[in-house]
Structures are given as structure tokens and as C-alpha cells.
Amino acid sequence: MSTIVEPKNHTTSESPSTTGVFDDVDAAVAAARKAFETYSSCSLTQRSTFIDAIRKAASADEALNFMATSAVEETQMGNARHKVLKNYYAATRSPGIEDLTIQALQGDSGLTTLEYAPYGVIGAIAPTTNPTETIICNTIGMLAAGNTVVFSPHPRARKISIWLVDVLNRAMVEAGAPENLITIISTPSVENTKKLISHRDISMLVATGGPQIVNMVLTSGKKAIGAGSGNPPVLVDETADLAKAAHDIVTGASFDNNLPCTAEKEIIIVSEALPTFMAEFQKAGAQVISEEKQIDKLRTMILNEELTRPKTEWVGKDAYDILTAAGIEAEPDVKLVTMITDPQDPLVQVEMLMPVVPVVPVTDYETGIDMAVDLEHGNRHTAVMHSRDVRRLDEMARRIQTTIFVKNGPSFAGIGIDGEGFATFTIAGPTGEGLTSARSFARRRRCVLES
């Protein structure tokens, strides 16, 4: 794997440069604030030019491979091949200024337009699960809306986050942009994150991560977008194309070793379809653990003592490595670990963020929908269903009320990967913006011209 190299012109509060990297929160915010004052006079065409520079820099083959391998190396989680794809979609399919459509109302009394205006300097907190993807898509959307950004990276993704901000800043400056449109705090900590959140020059906050950090921004008293955790259920009924369902679930749930909060976390299946599905599931790359002692050992190994959250050291690890560490002989091409269990199993109730996805049989699809609603825990994040019955698909969509609902496909189709629609890695269920884009980071402004 690549060794992560710090940017040559590493910035400190004492020696500012064009890279946007600062040791001090105040210095990072001040630089972004100064950049905003200049950026405010840039035209939409100029914004688009700067965003094109971001897309080009972030989607270059060398950058894609470096970001992917470096993120896996630094965070010790995920799949480099899949991260290449995620970063590519973030760079090429995150909406830019085209997302900022103006609404016009014309009548006898004149013309009123509803436009988008920037907030100012946004404080954005990035996760360890999707560090570079989040920085790329947030940067594109926030700058398209006319803002500048200060990033607070996750401590375990610090180096690659600094590298990326440096690269994107340099690309924009070369395209004629003001310096420091995006800045980053090079010393991430809880204290510095709190300082960023409460900083008087931060007008808006965006947190992509777990419930603790989302709650911090939501109680800040500022405009905040919270993209929190999920526990996405997938329901398979007896009418489904079971071979396709099995393939799609393995593909979606093993994607980046199940790190995306959108990935299938537990499977609910109508009992009538269980035998055929499990056979197809194994063909697709799932390894079934059936001995209770092995399941108990696996559960103890990957969950904390209270069985309430996954152990960090196993989050985003390969299925083969998880099985081997548990003393279970792993099939050479295993992509996903599974077992048949009951809905109260902690492996079902807890968002595991690893390629361990349990199967829960139910008597009928109505019971399955009830269970899916319960297991989603009210996060309103993501759910998936495989069925040939359109009425059932519509019923589950209405009942579960998730931000993303995928019908007959892998979960990642819901975030624009091999699916229609734009891509994003900040999915705001708690605050209702849904799949965020440029317009999510802009204020609505009403301009009135009287006749």
C-alpha cells in the first residue's frame, strides 16, 4: 500500500500557505472567512470552473488509487477497490451549480424570484468510514452554493484528509480561485471540534458521522445538517427473484466491507423463500455459520462486552479475516458472513459496519414489514426490499419512511452508485434534508420586483 505523505507546504497558524491546512481552529476559520469575502464576488461561471478543477483533481487515476489505499492503510478499515469507485462517484456525480435552480413567479404585480444564497463559512465534520468521499462531495456542494468550508477530519483519517484538502486547494488556485476556499484543522480532537462548532464566524454546521457528533451540531444553536447512523433492513418476500436478490444483497452488504451507513445490515425473509434464497446466497459469496458455538464466539469477538456496539478493531474488516480470527475456516472467496437467527440477536439490533449480516425468517411479508420498521430504529435512513409485487413495495416504502428506499437492487444504488440520480455521502435523515446537494447548503432568498 502507499505510504501517506504529508503535504510539502504543511500550513501552520504561523506560516500560512495556499494549502488550507492549519493547526489552529481560529486560523483555519479566519482564512476561510477571508476567502469567502473574495469568493462572494465570483460569478457562477467562475464557481463552476473551480468545481471542474476539483472534479478533475479528485477523479484522476493516480489520486483515486492513492486516496483509496491510503484511507484503508490509515483507518484500517474498508476495501481499497471499492473506495476507488466511491471517490470517483463523489467527484463526478456530486451536483454543482446546476442544482441551484431559481423559481420565478410572474403576474400583474411584478416578478418574484426565489433564489439560493450562501450561508458563509461552513464547519464540516467528516467521518472515518468515508473520509475522502465526504470531503469531495461536501466541497463540491458547499462551494457551488457560494460558501467556504472548514473541515474537521476524524483523527484516524487525519493524514489522507489533509492530503486531499491540499490537493483540491491547489487545483482550484491553479484554475484562478481565491486561496483557502476550503481549510482543514490538522490537529483534530474533541476540543477542537467543539471550538469549531461554537466559533462565531461559523454560520452553518454539517456533521457526517455517529449520533454523538450529530447531537453536538444539532444542539449548537446554529443551522445544522446531521447525517447520522442507520441500521438498514432488507426484506425479501416469496415473489422476489431470489437469485438476483441474493446477488444484490451480497454485492451491497459487502461493498467497502459494509462501512456505508446505507448498506444492508440485516436480512428479513419470508420463510417460504428461505431454502432457495440461502442456496443462492452462498453461491453469491455468503458463508453461512450454523453452529451455535461458532456464532457465540463470533458475536463475543466482534461486539463489546455489553453487546451494544461493534468493536472498533473489527469495523470494516474483510469477511475472510473476521472468520479466521474467530477460528472458523473461511472459504477462499467469501464476501459476507451470515447466520440464521432471531430479531433480538444483537447482531440484528446493532449497526455492525462490517460484512457480518444476519438472516431473520418471518411467516409473511406483513410481519416482515413490521419487523423492518422496528429494526430500522426510527433512523429514517435506508431500507431495501426485493419483491415482484409492486403493491408490497409501495406498502413498505410508505410504512418505513426512510430517506432512501431501494427496490430490487443493491443498497448503493440509493446513493447514485450504479443507480440513477446524483451521488452523495452526507445523508441527512435526522434533519430531513435527505441526500444532500448544493441546494442543501444554501439559504432561500426572495427577491421582488414590482411592476
Automatic annotation (TrEMBL):
Residues 10-20 have a biased composition (Polar residues). Its EC number is 1.2.1.76. It holds the Pfam family Aldedh. Keywords: NAD, Oxidoreductase. The keyword NAD applies. Residues 23-410 form the Aldehyde dehydrogenase domain. GO terms for molecular function: acetaldehyde dehydrogenase (acetylating) activity. Residues 1-20 are annotated as: Disordered. InterPro entries: Acetald_propionald_DH-rel (IPR012408), Ald_DH/histidinol_DH (IPR016161), Ald_DH_C (IPR016163), Ald_DH_N (IPR016162), Aldehyde_DH_dom (IPR015590). The keyword Transmembrane helix does not apply. It is an enzyme of class 1 (oxidoreductase). This is Succinate-semialdehyde dehydrogenase (Acetylating). The gene is sucD_1.
